[in-house]
Design a protein that fits this description.
552 residues; 17 helices; elongated; 15% strand; disordered N terminus; 4-stranded parallel sheet; 24 strands
């Protein structure tokens, strides 16, 4: 059958990058004015004065980083932001937001290196979301001297430790230890321990969030830190929130946000067909889908790579039609309880794509409605060899081989020749995330040296006021150096899949679930995007936002 094939290997690479160039939603070309002297974009956290805090309640994520894969972390982030909105807290402490690598435990990266903080803050107020702000102890911490107090007692005690990047008083050695299982650590119990930090423990559900009332409460507080013997009242505008025990408080809060979305709504008529659609997400989550976009670091690095490939490979500038596939066949997933909803065999997934009639061109049944297949997988997890002497082990290694074959010869190619190679090129596939992520150079964000001031002199071993490090003096560091290569790759893959013409995902994956939903809201006016679910029984069309994630 005649299909849209390419006979040159360079065509695969070039067409893939052409797609990336047009799908990363580059709303404007990044000008030199937006870059520092090294040609890299400025730290997004310092692009807008909106990151300057005000003396107002500020929500702080007190865990070392968000837990889980990228979209599991995103769900916890959604719950965290929703908590601020529900408590009428207008600021979130930016340095407390860190995202962890799912395959490299204890490694994490600053939020502002992954996502566009300037874009978020420029629109947050109009959508009812809190601003992301930096830490300034002179603004967010307070002192109220008593009558008869003296200057030596007026020391600001920070409830955020800028050196460790953690809430003051918690056990950094324990929380940063790669061997620590954070799901078993009661971090909340560490907060506010010791006389000097007792005022830092503020319960968001009971403490007053009005700045004036916070000061009034500090005056009335009769604990040892704020007793009259110290001649000073201390208070903080920081409100800690988080908790990772078991699935963690944020996971439970997010699940609670979805409780009304589990049921299917009344049948809806779409294209003369009655379909059942799940209710839409709450407004807070839809707003976050809109505001959380990749940082300039991710977008610029990808654009530069695309331009280089286009210069070195003569190719048409015509935009290819893309089908994005998230098969979720990584080895660790094949033993997960959610795998019961998925097709474990990648070869069978490819076969179902090939024979699914809606993917064929209606005017010519021998051609497909897409020219290129983007495969969103963890190369690290699929490419490794399984030592299992079982059917599952054979499937794992078969998936590795199937992906290698598709990389070399494309999909739906002619049968293999006697030499073991395919005699004809199939529809090209490409994988972007890991390769693009490896090329990104992030500016290293160094924690500043802080000092307490006691009796007008820096105290030995004490810390308080930040010594800023000029951006031009910060060395650059790669995602691999930071230990977050898989996380960064996952983010690039996610937003690439969102922009494809067709998306095929799986049930039981938070990643697929969110791609389905983001695509639905972005294309709602045109029918909600073309989304499909592939599983053991075949492929089916999904209408509306995806159902809440569940393995039951």
């Amino acid at each position: 059958m005649k299909r849209r094939y390419s006979s040159a290997n360079t065509r695969i690479l070039a067409i893939g990058f052409v797609f990336l160039f047009t799908t990363l939603n580059l709303q404007k070309k990044i000008s030199p004015l937006e870059q520092n002297d090294y040609g890299m974009p400025h730290n997004d956290a310092h692009l807008s004065s909106r990151t300057t805090p005000k003396p107002q309640p500020t929500l702080v994520h007190f865990d070392p980083y968000f837990m889980g894969g990228f979209r599991n972390q995103h769900m916890r982030f959604v719950a965290f932001v929703a908590n601020a909105v529900n408590l009428n807290i207008s600021q979130i402490l930016l340095p407390s937001l860190r995202w962890g690598d799912p395959y490299n435990k204890s490694k994490s990266i600053h939020h502002e290196l992954l996502f566009d903080v300037q874009y978020w803050n420029s629109r947050a107020d109009s959508l009812g979301l809190p601003f992301l702000v930096n830490y300034d102890p002179n603004v967010l911490e307070g002192i109220i001297p008593n009558t008869g107090g003296n200057e030596s007692a007026t020391t600001v005690v920070p409830c955020w430790n800028e050196t460790s990047g953690l809430y003051s008083g918690v056990d950094e050695a324990l929380l940063r230890n790669p061997g620590t299982n954070l799901r078993k650590i009661h971090t909340w119990g560490m907060i506010g321990q010791g006389e000097i930090y007792s005022h830092c423990r503020r319960t968001p559900w009971t403490d007053e969030n009005d700045p004036i009332k916070i000061e009034e409460a500090a005056r009335q507080d009769d604990n040892s830190t704020n007793s009259t013997s110290n001649k000073v009242y201390r208070f903080t505008h920081l409100t800690p929130h988080g908790g990772l025990i078991s699935s963690g408080r944020l996971w439970w809060e997010y699940s609670n946000m979805q409780k009304n979305r589990g049921r299917a709504s009344e049948p809806t008529l779409i294209n003369s067909q009655l379909v059942y659609m799940h209710p839409e997400h709450v407004q807070i989550e839809r707003a976050i889908y809109e505001l959380l976009r990749p940082s300039h670091h991710l977008r610029l690095a990808t654009e530069n790579a695309i331009q280089m490939v286009m210069q070195n490979n003569a190719t048409s500038n015509a935009r290819p039609r893309v089908l994005a596939l998230h098969p979720r066949v990584e080895q660790e997933m094949l033993t997960h309880r959610c795998n019961k909803f998925m097709e474990s065999n990648l070869t069978k997934v490819f076969e179902r794509l090939e024979t699914f009639s809606p993917f064929l061109d209606g005017s010519n049944s021998s051609e497909y409605r897409f020219d290129l297949v983007f495969v969103a997988v963890s190369k690290k997890e699929v490419d490794k060899t399984s030592t299992r002497d079982s059917e599952l082990g054979r499937i794992m290694n078969g998936n590795r081989d199937a992906l290698h074959h598709a990389r070399n010869y494309g999909l739906f190619n002619s049968s293999s020749s006697s030499s073991g190679t395919s005699s004809r090129m199939g529809i090209p596939i490409f994988e972007s995330g890991t390769d693009s992520a490896a090329k990104i150079q992030f500016p290293r964000i160094q924690q500043s040296t802080l000092q307490f001031v006691t009796n007008g002199r820096p105290g030995a071993g004490e810390r308080i006021y930040p010594q800023t490090v000029p951006a031009e003096n910060r060395p650059f560091v790669s995602a691999l150096d930071l230990g977050v290569l898989e996380l960064v790759a996952s983010i690039i893959n996610f937003f690439t899949a969102v922009k494809a013409e067709i998306f095929v995902g799986v049930k039981g994956s938070t990643y697929s679930t969110d791609v389905f939903s983001v695509r639905y809201y972005q294309h709602k006016e045109e029918g909600g995007g073309e989304n499909y679910i592939v599983g053991p029984g075949g492929i089916e069309r999904l209408y509306g936002p995806a159902a809440p994630h569940a393995c039951a």
